[in-house]
Amino acid sequence: MNAAVPVIAIDGPSGSGKGTIALGVASRLQFHLLDSGALYRLVAHAARRDGIAEDDETALAALVRRLAIEFRGRADAVSVHLDGADVTLAIRDEACGMAASKIAGLAAVRSALLAFQRGFRRAPGLVADGRDMGTVVFPDAGLKIFLTASAEERAQRRYKQLKDKGFDVNLRALLREIEARDLQDTQRPVAPLVAAADAVVLDSTALTIDQVQDRVLELAAQRLISASGR
After folding, report:
1. Is pLDDT at 130 greater than 70 in this prediction?
2. Is 68 among the domain residues?
3. I need a surface site. Which of 40, 132, 134, 183 has the fewest CB within 10 A?
4. What is the extent of the structural domain holding 96?
């Protein structure tokens, strides 16, 4: 890894807003963006496409190594492509998210994706969001954020997001799925969801997107930008 390139790692549970915040911060700073959750969703989508079971660790790791994954566009308008096809919307349904959470618990899959994720660290800087960005992928990140919110608030946000995209969803079912995914993410034996010891914990339950983004940018100015001379 190029330690001279600054990294902002934003981790947190499903629906905490980390993807939205990461997009905004990357755009404001003109940093590169890594949506690590999309990578696991891509693997889940490809496994479903190819008929590979979610617990077939060997086959899934081999699948990762032959996938052509590409993020296109600027940080504020990124599309996700798998083997040449735009799957930006296809990987965002709840079934894909649950499958991705299961697959993310497989050590061989995480290992196969690790170098790919670290390859996003390029000048002038990187904003990486996920569940182990600050603990495993970029443990030397200059700024680590652990973004959280109540399960009820996260379900409401996810409900609105999916409705806006035309998905037929049920709020109570979304809450159950979020609570199940929280348990799955925090209890998995490999790289469980946990705040890094040196992370700044931000509870976004009662905050707007702009308020959270401004706080992250303020912390970045204090801990990263001034240190790098930008």
Report:
1. yes
2. yes
3. 183
4. 7-223
Average pLDDT over residues 206-222: 96
What type of residue is 189? P
Mean local confidence (pLDDT), 198-222: 96
Is residue 2 domain-resident? no
31 pLDDT above the threshold of 70 = yes
Cα–Cα nearest to 113, from 146, 69, 78: 69
User: What average pLDDT is seen over the chain?
Assistant: 91
Is 230 inside a domain boundary?
no
Separation CA 158–CA 74 (nearest Å): 24
Can you tell me the distance from the alpha carbon of 22 to that of 100, in angstroms, rounded to the nearest whole number?
A: 20
Residues 133 and 8 sit within 8 Å (Cβ to Cβ): no
Average pLDDT over residues 194-198: 96
- Cα separation, 104 vs 191, in Å, equals 9
Token pair listed for 125: 């800087």
Domain count, the chain: 1
Q: What is the CATH number of the domain that holds 204?
A: 3.40.50.300
Q: Is 126:53 a contact under the CB 8 Å cutoff? A: no
Distance CA 31, CA 25 (A): 8
Alpha-carbon distance 15 to 154, whole Å? Answer: 5
Strands (E), 120-227: 126-130, 143-148, 200-203
Residue 175 has pLDDT above 90, yes or no: yes
Where b means 16+ CB within 10 Å and e means fewer, 85-124 reads eebbebbbbbebbbbbbebbbbeebbebbeeebbebbeee
pLDDT digits (tens, 9 = 90+) for 41-69: 999 999 999 999 999 999 999 999 999 99
